[in-house]
Each structure stands twice: as structure tokens, then as C-alpha cells.
Amino acid sequence: MTLLDDKTSHTVKISPSLDEIEAWLREEDPKKLTKLWHAADQTRKRYVGDDVHLRGLIEISNYCCRQCAYCGLRAGNTRLERYRLTEEEIMGCVQQAVRFGYGTVVLQSGEDYGIEREWLANIVRRIKTETPLAVTLSLGERPDEDLIAWREAGADRYLLRFETSDPELYRLIHPAGPHRREGNRIEILKFLRSLGYEIGSGVMVGIPGQTYQSLANDIDTFRALDLDMVGVGPYIGHPDTPLGARVEIRVVPRENQVPNTELMTYKVVALTRLVCPQANIPSTTALATLNRALGRELGLQRGANVVMPNLTPPQYRVKYEIYPAKVCIDETADQCHMCMRARIMRIGRSVGSGQGGRKRSEPMANNQGKTYT
Ligand code: 5AD
Ligand code: FES
Question: What is the fold of 14-355?
Fold first, then answer.
């Protein structure tokens, strides 16, 4: 299968090895990178098609009991005014998702034990009985009993980024939490899958202390976990956090430190598509924050097939400040909806309908080791 029309030299492996992934992350030649974008885009088209799925994001609470060194929602950030949506407010956002024709709502929050197991299970049950929507949860490292109850209530998917596969860096940026399997997000993801959830994970690109080798290993871990969803975005420093205030966490030689740039994020999106060809991959808000004009579009053209328009009421949205200068802060849900649709149409893609769950079809049988040449 010839997907790249270049007879000269550089080929793009469909399923690159760990070393090849690292070499791509270090690649700076624009001509070669064009081939990577093309291979990712072709793989996206072959495996998941031209549809871009819209997931309506509802940021249900910004309370958090954890102290992640990079995140503006960390418990230690006393400058942040906290909120938690009521059931009625959440259901109002859900109704908007239905009106806009979305297939999924994503309920996201800090790790907030004010969100009680039964309270949330009831909301999930309501969404599943009153609407045709898929429900994705992104509520942190909750105890097994909560994850079980929410799955029984009908939740379809769970997102939990492992943030870095480097155990030392992970420990440095994630002080201990209340949960017994705490710290081992990979184990939690496996448990979620055993419950029947579709599982999503991901990392930040360019965290201080992140090396090329560890980022390559992150991407290899997406493949090993056979993730259904993978979200990656650039690390953006938040001044009210230790990492954002430049407290030195770990020193790595300059040449090994991954930059938190737009270009590096595209490389990670593209490589993620090559290692997880069937996965749902969003073009993230953090990426759009680095390039407001075209970040979403370029993400979609370099491997991504999902966007997450924000449904959170604007008065709360400003308070969900994981990192500063987030895009879509002042927009209403209607504005975000129209804007996303326009962006999708402008690049010649279609808006997906239905729940848009993980596809398991194999357009190319046994593609291991094949190359786009
Ligand atoms: N910059 C970019 N992304 C961040 N996240 C948290 N803090 C930041 C930051 N400062 C990401 C994490 C988390 C997701 C919800 O947001 O990867 O899992
Ligand atoms: Fe929200 Fe453009 S996607 S305003």
C-alpha cells in the first residue's frame, strides 16, 4: 500500500518501534514531518473515516482533593473560587447536547468526594434513560466501588490520563492521595476495562522533567494498553502551581527535555494515531490554546478525529482553570457548537452522528511492520 508519493528515502512505519517513535519526536526536518502528518491523516481516514465526533464537555465541579504540581485545580490553590453544578444544571447542559445532536457527554471534575457515588449514579441513570447519549466520566482516581456503581448505572467510558509513564517523574508531580491504588493509574485503567468501560488516557507534552525517551515510552504504552481514547495536549504553566511557578522538580539535560510546543504536540498526536489506529483521538483545547486560529484544525489533520465543545455554563467555565488562557472561556455553548461545526466543515470533514464509540474494524489486515513509502 503506497500512501506517500515519495520514491526517495524516508518511510513512515504504520506501527513504529520505540526507537522510531523517539526519532520522530526529535525530527525537525519539515519535509520529513510532512510525511508523518500525511501518514497519520491517511491512517485516521482508513480506520475511523472522515467523521469528527463531538463530545459535549460538562465541567461539573472544580473542587479537587489532590495536589498535582501542574494543575490549577489542585487543593492548594486557594485563589480559585470553587463550584459544583447541581443536578438540574447538569441536566440542562445534557439537554443542550441532545439539541445540538451530540452523541456523548463528558462529565469532568477534579477529584471531588463532594460528588457522592449515589448522587452521580442517579444522574448517569437519568442521562441513560432520558436521552440517547453515551456517558463518559472523567472524575479522577475514585475507589473501585464508585467506578463499579457508575458502570452499573450505565456509564459507557472513563477517561484517566496517566500523564507520564516515567515512575519517578510521576511521583514528583503527584503527591499521595486518598485512594489505595493511588498512583497506579495503569492498574485503574485495566480495572475500568474489566468493568466494561471504554478506556481513555493520555499525557501532557513538555512537562518540565519529561525526556524524549519517556515521551516515546508514553506513546508505546498507549499501544500496549490498546486504548479506546487518547487525549494529549501541551503542558501550559499555571502560575498558581509549584510547577508553573518554576519550582525545580527534576533537572534533565537540556537536549533531553521535551519542549511544550505546538509542533511537538502534533508529533505526539500523529504518532498516537499510528500506534492506536482505531482510537478516538481529540484535537484538544490545550492545543487550540497554543494556536487559536488553526490548532484544532491542524490536530484534526494530523491524526485526531474528535473535538470536545464546552457545554459548561459560562459563569462556571472561567473557574475551571486547569491552566491559564484557555480558549472558549467566554463563549456560550451555542457559540462553541457553531464554531466547532464550522471548523470541521472548513477542512472538508463531516460531523459525526451517533455515539461514535471505538471502532474495531480492521481495514488493513495484519498491518504490523508495514510502511507508508
Ligand atoms: N497544562 C496542560 N494540561 C494540563 N492538565 C492539567 N494541568 C495542565 C496544565 N497545566 C491536563 C492533565 C489532566 C487534564 C484534565 O488536563 O493531563 O489529566
Ligand atoms: Fe469554543 Fe470555538 S470551539 S468558541
Answer: TIM Barrel (3.20.20)
In degrees and rounded to multiples of 5, residue 157 shows phi and psi of -140, 155
> Could you tell me where the DSSP H helices lie in the chain?
18-26, 30-48, 87-100, 117-130, 144-152, 167-173, 185-194, 212-225, 262-275, 285-290, 295-301, 314-317, 333-346
* Residue 368: predicted pLDDT: 47
Domain ranges, ordered by start, for the chain: 14-355
Q: Is 339 in the pocket of ligand 2 (CB under 6 A)?
A: yes
The secondary structure of the chain in percent helix, strand, coil, rounded to multiples of 5, reads: 40, 15, 45
pLDDT single digits (tens) 219-258: 999 999 999 999 999 999 999 999 999 877 888 999 999 9
Pocket of ligand 1 (CB under 6 A): 70-71, 161, 163, 204, 233, 235-236, 238, 286, 322-323
Confidence of residue 11 (pLDDT cuts 50, 70, 90): confident
Amino acid sitting at position 371: T
Is residue 298 packed enough to be buried (19+ CB in 10 Å), middle (13-18) or exposed (0-12)? buried
- Ligand 2 nearest-atom number relative to CA 331: 4
Place of cell 485512594: 179
Contact 368, 15 (CB under 8 A): yes
